[in-house]
Write the structure tokens for this entry.
Amino acid sequence: MSKLFIISQQHQQQTNAIKEGINLAKQLGLVPEIMSYSYEPLSGDAYYNPRIAGVVREQVRADDSAAVKQQLSVLNANEVQFTNMWCKHLVEHVCEYVTPDKYAMMLKSIHESACFRPLDWQLIRHIKVPLMLLSNHPLHKANSILMALDLGTSDPLKQALNQDVITQAQQLAKATGCDLHLGYVVRFPQILRDMDIVNTHTLVKEAYQRYDSKIAKLGLDKEHVHILTGNADLCLFELSCRLKAQYLVIGARQREGIIGFMLGNTAESILERVRSNVLVVPHRLAD
């Protein structure tokens, strides 16, 4: 049976990743495994004296381990495997350790940060398995799943990524009992909308007609198909709120290098405002 890798960071998460992760694992039929990461920057005597540093590290790890054990006890989940480790570079360890042959999914709480490239952005760019990021500000009575697809792409890699998103979203909908919705955004610059040069209603109508066969294959009700015009991140955020989406399933191209650093992608941009849990499907699944 495949596993769900749950990342626990005692001092860097708001949503209870352990509780939510164990519940999701049960729904998906996965075996939960918790990795409790501990790290505190040392200063003073603890920085210069290796013996004191060692004592401090072990105390922090002991406190974090005790917190995890307490949560598992409350949840009646003492049988769940968990490991604690001192780790400064979490992304490097996770991306090397969590591979598709061992894990079906990874889960963690969204790490809110003022940094230009926070922890979650780095994970999105390098993960090898789907990553569930838990919102710190979830919607009330959320009962639907929104999958974001690029219906207009002719790129084989993007088409394969679309299929992976569909697969993940359908599995999640079946496991949770949530209604599945499709969101597609026809990218349209704000300046052109402001100038009223093109009729956006016509663009949407034409898109429904152009992609009718693709949509039909998904077997969704017409009311569950939503085609919008504008900026993808903002449109998907507004749509997920309107639908009260518990989960937003989205693909990540995982651009790297200077171009990737400058351009970013929708999966990264939407984290700044989203109130749904976000399941990021990496393009490497399609390779």
The CA atoms of residues 46 and 52 lie 5 Å apart. Confidence is low (pLDDT under 50) at residues 257-264. The chain is about 45% helix and 25% strand. The beta strands are 3-8, 31-38, 81-86, 103-109, 131-134, 144-148, 179-187, 225-230, 245-252, 277-282.
